[in-house]
Amino acid sequence: GYTAYEALSPLSTGAAGGKIEVGTPADFQSGSATYVAEGRFYVVNTGSTFFALSQKCPHLGCKVPFCDSSGRFECACHGSVFDIGGEYVKGPAPRGMDRYHLALDNGNLVVNTGILVAGPDRGAHQYLTPPKGPSCLEKS
After folding, report:
1. How far is residue 100's CA from residue 75's CA, in Å, rounded to a whole number?
2. What DSSP string runs through 20-81?
3. Is 110:20 a contact under the CB 8 Å cutoff?
4. Rounded distance between C-alpha atoms, residue 101 and residue 126, angstroms
5. Using the 8-state DSSP alphabet, how is residue 61 labeled?
6. Running along the chain, 140 residues long, what does each successive block of 10 average in pLDDT?
7. Cα–chain-centroid distance for residue 38?
8. What are the pLDDT digits (tens) for 7-25?
9. Distances (CA, A) of 116 to 28, 76, 95, 105, 129
């Protein structure tokens, strides 16, 4: 019972509301999502824009991993899927993934975990592309 509780209980953000320097834009390849454990967020380079996406699913707060094979964020708890920009693709999530404030300061990307902005509405598809390959949720 406890294991099920731990697996399904919502995660705290883990962020204490501070600024975290994550590197230069050149450190993040186009189309990549890099997990930053210190702040429990992903730094995403869509190819045209950088985002700092919260690891929490906006549905019930489960940690949403990035699926390298599909190039999407896929929540194993209830099946919500988000594109590389954190925009809603499918599932029960009410919106896209929430975002932390990200700024360029003296050539470095700095994430402020004290400023969290609600993810984009379900209809946003600025970064939507077909999946690169198979979904991680559909693998057996």
Report:
1. 19
2. EEEE-GGGS-TTEEEEETTTTEEEEE-SS-EEEEESB-TTT--B--EETTTTEEE-TTT--E
3. yes
4. 19
5. -
6. 50 63 94 94 95 95 94 94 96 96 94 94 92 84
7. 14
8. 555 444 444 579 999 999 9
9. 21, 23, 14, 19, 25
pLDDT of 61: 85
Q: Which helix (DSSP H) or strand (DSSP E) does residue 84 occupy?
A: none
Residues facing 90 on adjacent strands: 81
Q: Which residue's structure tokens are 């994550």?
A: 22
Structural contact between residues 58 and 119, judged by C-beta atoms closer than 8 angstroms:
yes
- Token pair for residue 128? 């939507």
Q: Look up the pTM and report it.
A: 0.84
pLDDT of residue 14: 44
Q: Torsions phi, psi of 31, nearest 5?
A: 80, 15
The candidate with the shortest Cα–Cα distance to 55, out of 26, 72, 35, 69, is: 35
